Amino acid sequence: MTDPRLTELTTRVPSLRLLTELADLIHYGRDWTRRWGPSPLAVALPGSIEEVQAIVQWASERQVALVPSGGRTGLSGGAVAARGELVLSLERMNRVLGFDATDRLLSVEAGVTLQAVHEAARSHGLLYPVDFAARGSCTIGGNIATNAGGIRVIRYGTTREWIGGLTVVAGNGQLLELNRGLLKNSSGYDLRQLMIGSEGTLGVVVGAQLKLTDPAPPAQTMLLALPHMEALMQVFGLFRAQLKLQAFEFFTDMALKHVLAHGAQRAIDADLPYYVVAEYDALDDADEQAALLAFEDGVREGWIADGVIAQSQSQAATLWRLREGITESLAPRKPYKNDIALRIGAMPAFLHEMQALLAREYPRMEVVWFGHIGDGNLHINILPPEDMQLAEFIAHCERVTRLLADTLQRHGGSISAEHGIGLVKRDYLGSTRSAAEIALMRGVRQVFDPSGILNPGKLFE
Questions:
Q1: In this protein, which residues make up the domain named FAD-binding PCMH-type (predicted)?
Q2: How far apart are the C-alpha atoms of 239 and 234, rounded to whole Å?
Q3: The Cα angle at residue 225 between residues 361 and 367, in degrees rounded to 5
Q4: What domains can be seen in the chain, in order of their start residue?
Q5: pTM
Q6: Nearest-CA neighbor of 420 among 111, 56, 73?
Q7: Is 173 left (phi over 0), alpha (psi -120 to 50) or beta?
Q8: DSSP string covering 150-177, please?
Q9: What is the pLDDT of residues 292-345, one digit of tens each?
């Protein structure tokens, strides 16, 4: 029998696309975490802002929980609907609405993919610089909800820096136009920035004005093999001082093993414990010479054991696949993931503690870590042993995550760098935020969503 609440919703919004088939509920009710079984009430696919407002108003009146949904590429359970929520998918709202050449603002709907934004920016001779491997499936709304970072934060910063304005539907259905693309605006609180990173708990992002910039200078890509962990920060300091870095990404030999098995091509014959993909400005011969000198300095200091410089765009793409293909290569093993952040200055001391902690607590498990060393963001993936039950594996990893969170707290770090808190990190929020901060966050949430319908259970209960 059709749920009477859904009958009422379709009566109020006659043009709404509503999915109730089991396959659709499973597809739209989960993200990449795969830890919770999806159990949504239904899936709503609005085609306009007006339909989103009507859905939110109905949900507020009927006390039906909503889970805003983009590309569902998240890794913290932020888009999971496991408690009978209505999934509010923005995938049909995927248009590029316009471009203002004077202000360099690209107006888009929330369901547009990051790759489509890149293509639209290029069509105007400009760049939207936020970038990461899931560009083809993640959406701008989801990027905004988690303040996504990616591989070029070292040069361009996170999503937050590139949002000129937002259109948001609050928890009562009210439409908010936030900042409207202004460069300067000191008229009270910047609610636009409050929405960024709020994981759909304060409002449903339905549109954005994205800032574009000049295309990046010609770049060169280098793959480095490093002999020990200390060399990661030493080489980063060396390259940052001598080159104009666009990206500085690292991965371990464990990560390399998995991505090679998944089809990537080996670029360095030697087997070393750590690898770096560095991308830097290569405008002229002077930049190329600076890169060679930096490499030679690293070799002389014993920090670099081997390396290769891409000789073509296709070879550069091959080198980048070694880094960008890691997450996909690990997915079949259903890893437990940690996504952490520290100040770069705190990284060396933390790395030593982290290595000792992981070796002690995971003696039987394969630990694969990689990340954005240039902005202090590490991704730690724990792979379950074949003979361990999933519940036992999760319980063990969560106990270790508590220890990791305590270590991060001592070093002033964060339990979530760019994946958000969602369901996965909810119990560890207190290691990053004080009790006073969390109380204020709860108060803010109550103001924007007085009925408590927007992504309940995410961030905190």
A1: 36-215
A2: 9
A3: 15
A4: 4-92 (3.30.43.10), 96-211 (3.30.465.10), 219-327 (3.30.70.2190), 334-420 (3.30.70.2740)
A5: 0.92
A6: 73
A7: left
A8: BTTHHHH--GGGGEEEEEEEETTS-EEE
A9: 999 999 999 999 999 999 999 999 999 999 999 999 999 899 899 999 999 999
